[in-house]
Structures are given as structure tokens and as C-alpha cells.
């Protein structure tokens, strides 16, 4: 989703003296999203911790093979296994609407009317509706695999596909 959703985390990290960068994903497919992440990663000096939420977990899984990456943090995020497609992963998880469908061109689509229940249940309705119009993803993914430590945060009341 839009990188602006990380604003609160960015403010906390920078206030505490950390350098934080937020990647704005083009959301045109995993290859392009990973390329955007690696572009920002290339601009960093020193060790890096990649953090992903929801679909961002797939991005950090694929981008996390860079030697600068010292840890991957999954915050209520998808964490695909080797050779697992995003479609397989999403279909294996409970979803309030169960309405995530692949399109003919290999993307995933969620009916915008059902997006708030699946993805934005904890958001104000107008924000969830706005985000629904921006959502997309690509089902044709393969992942580089991970040597950095993995950290997972599971949230008891947050719904994420």
C-alpha cells in the first residue's frame, strides 16, 4: 500500500535518532516493487533492517538477500516459503470476504467494496475506501531466500491477507 501508512513509525524512529527510509512501491508487480526497494536500499549507508506489512512481507522476502540487510521484520505480513506463490499463500489464509481473485494478467484483485473487511478493518471507513482504490498485487512471484534473522509480529485483532 501507500508508504504514507508508515508515517507514525517513521516519526518514532527519527525522533529516537535512527535513519528511516520509506519505499513508495509502484504496485505493478513484485519485480518492480523489489526494484524500488533495492533502489532505496542502495542509497543506505551501513546495516539495514527491512520491515514489511501485509504484501510488504513478500517484498522484503525477495529484497532481503542484499548483504546490507541484517534483519527482516514482518508486521502482520505475508511471509511466503520457497516456491510458494502469493496466490497459494493468500488462498491458505482465512479472509472475511474470501474474495481475493487472480486476474487474467496474473494480478490479484479484491473487490473494493470488500476491501475494508479484509484489509482495513481497523481503519476509518473513508481511509479504507481510499486505500481500496489503490490496491493491487502480482501472483507470479519467486523469492530470493533469506539469511538475515526473521522477526514476526502477530497482531491479535488486525486482519491482513
Write the layout of secondary structure elements.
Blueprint: H1 7-15, H2 30-42, E1 48-54, H3 56-63, E2 69-77, H4 86-91, E3 100-102, E4 107-110, H5 115-118, H6 125-132, E5 137-138, E6 150-153
Parallel strand pairs: 1-2, 2-6
Antiparallel strand pairs: 3-4, 4-5
Helix pairs in contact: 2-3
Structure in words:
The chain has 161 residues and is α/β, with parallel strands linked by helices. It has helices at 7-15, 30-42, 56-63, 86-91, 115-118, 125-132, and strands at residues 48-54, 69-77, 100-102, 107-110, 137-138, 150-153. The longest helix has 13 residues, at 30-42.
Average residue pLDDT: 77
Order of helices and strands: HHEHEHEEHHEE
Strand order, sheet with most strands: 1-2-6
Helix-strand makeup class: alpha/beta
Shape: globular
Largest sheet: 3 strands, parallel
What share of the residues does DSSP label as strand, in percent? Answer: 15-25%
End-to-end separation in angstroms reads 13 Å
Structure summary, number of beta strands? 6
Considering DSSP H and I runs of 4 or more, what fraction of the residues is helical?
25-40%
Question: Can I get a quick summary?
Answer:
The protein has 161 residues and is of the alpha/beta class. It has six helices and six strands; from the N terminus they run ααβαβαββααββ.
